[in-house]
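Readers outside the structure-tokenisation community will struggle with the description of the input data as it stands. I therefore recommend that a typical entry be quoted early in the introduction. An entry of this sort, consisting of the sequence and the corresponding backbone structure tokens, reads as follows:
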Amino acid sequence: MTALDRHRRDWEDLAEIDPLWAILASPETRGGRWNVDAFFASGEAEIAEVLRIAETLGYPGQHERALEQLVAAESVYRGARAGPVLGKPLIQIADVDV
């Protein structure tokens, strides 16, 4: 078994046990205690902060494209897309599922 196979298996196992906690571990949310809306709001807040910092550095010049890493929790719970999270329409979104 390759390292990538082991990595994939580990993530699959974690996703079956507690998918939201596997993505964003926090002692108070372990064991399926995440509030789904709070989980996604935390991601939106993190992206907003990253973009705020990037903009202070002059990046990005345009908000046209996004790279989105798909996770089981996203497709099961929300099906959110990068555009709504960024609050702007995007010309191109590339989805990556490992």
About this structure: The beta strands are 65-69, 92-96.
